[in-house]
What does this fold into?
Amino acid sequence: MPLVVESPYYMHLLIMVCMNAILAMTFILMLRAGMISLGIAAFWGVGAYVSALLAMKLGLSFWISLPLATIITGMVALAIGSVLVKNPGFGFTILTVVIGQIAELAFAHLPYLGGYQGIVSIPPVDPINIPLLFSIQFTSKSASYYLILILLLVVVLGYTAFYSAWTGRAWAAIALNPRLAESKGINTYRYRLLAFVVASAGAGLAGSFYAHYYGAIGPMTFGVFKTIYIQIYAILGGVGFPFLGPAIGAFIMIIVPEALRVAKEVEPIITGILLILLVLLLPEGLLSLLIRRRGAGKPLERLAPVARWIKGLLPFTGQKWGGAGDNAKGK
Amino acid sequence: MLKVNNLTKYFGGLVAVNDVDFHVAKSEILGLIGPNGAGKSTLFNLIAGLLKPTKGRVIFENKDITGFSTHEIAQLGIDLSFQASTLFTRLSVLNNVFVGYHMRYQTRIWKRLLRTSSALKEEREFRRNAMEILEFMGLKTIRDELAENLSHGDQKVLIICMAMATNPKLLLLDEPVAGISQNETKNMVKLIKKIRDSGVTIVVVEHDMKVMRSLCDRIVVLNYGRKLMEGSPKEVLESEEVIEAYLGTAEI
It folds into this structure.
């Protein structure tokens, strides 16, 4: 099985990689519909809080509160998004920052959410018991790891369905030229809203897992700072790669500093330097190296099929993330 | 088919289109000419819903479509092809054409997400159809190229391909031959006539008077946002008034 290590600490890091990869995927999904969201952590938090409350106040099992939290997060996103996506472009991005701030305050001050201490002793993932056949406990790290891998797969399959169906093409069209898309009969408002809801629901799913896995949540976890990290994961891997990019970006950003035992205090500095270098040298992310090499005519025969496979995974490669701004260029 | 009544558009204090009336009959090619700034593109944007008129009505197939949003107007069968080479630059040629099929999908969205057989069948059908269009237009061999890598002439042809994919009833063409070679121009004229022969009504804005003379059934002349005159190409292009307003410096 993929990447199983002995140390529970490293298992924990791998679990965090997978969960953050899901969050980065939601960032890319919105980006591909032409929206740069800085409020993903807020919806991650909505999923976590909703799931924790469902489990603790209503006594629901994790297996029920997970889909419920996902759906409720999607509905919250529908309500907020129906206002937000009316202002595409910079207006949208700034409003998502505002939503992020409001969410952080709301988590801290709304009743039943535990204030700045947050919610503790959230019940862990319930075991699956099928009499006479098998029973799975989720007390060990490796069981949680397989669980998040499955959730990751669910998100990848779900998002692939959206990307490869008509919706993916409509999103790409809207991101590239909303005016032209509109004049070809695409209801840009509705498709943007769809992207917002689908992406936020994915973040809610990750939040629900996080709450039950970690056992404690607090408002500071879901702040704007987290969203910035989510972006870094996505950009580091390459936003042209909606699934592999986040996975590799999150892996590098989480595992490498830990493996190098870099002191916690200097970690943000190194992160910042890394990000600046990345934007300067590889604006399309690490994975763009594979495809760029191939395009430049330097035959990396062994890598070419890999690159083609990566390219084949997604309907539209090479969409520059900077090009996703919403300035109508058409005339 | 299309009627424009007293259409007026102010930008602040500036009148871009002033009290313009005209109509387009079914399966005709109507030319729209006028000096730069005469309001031709604004008029197109008003018809296609990208701008809202200050005054006046747009009536399409006996339905008042004034104030409809752009995608609603597109869904009724009016396709606007923009002036500059406006394409989805970072999509392939084939995917550009595919965008035109957006409003022709019949299957429900969840069926498309789950890739049921009816959705896949529809997708295949559109793919075949798109290939036919590309073959007809001579772009089939470069269908996987990104649109931004095409030559200017090919981009213009691709714009027409995208328009055909929407299966429009009325096609608004903004300068379809601007900046392309003589040979390509000749092909484009043939192409536009062919599209008309398949039953599509066309309104075309163009500065090339030779092209307009051979292409149009009727021509409407705009000047400073007002309609100067309308008539057959011969009448219009030889009228003193028009020559004075516009063609005095043009090649004729």
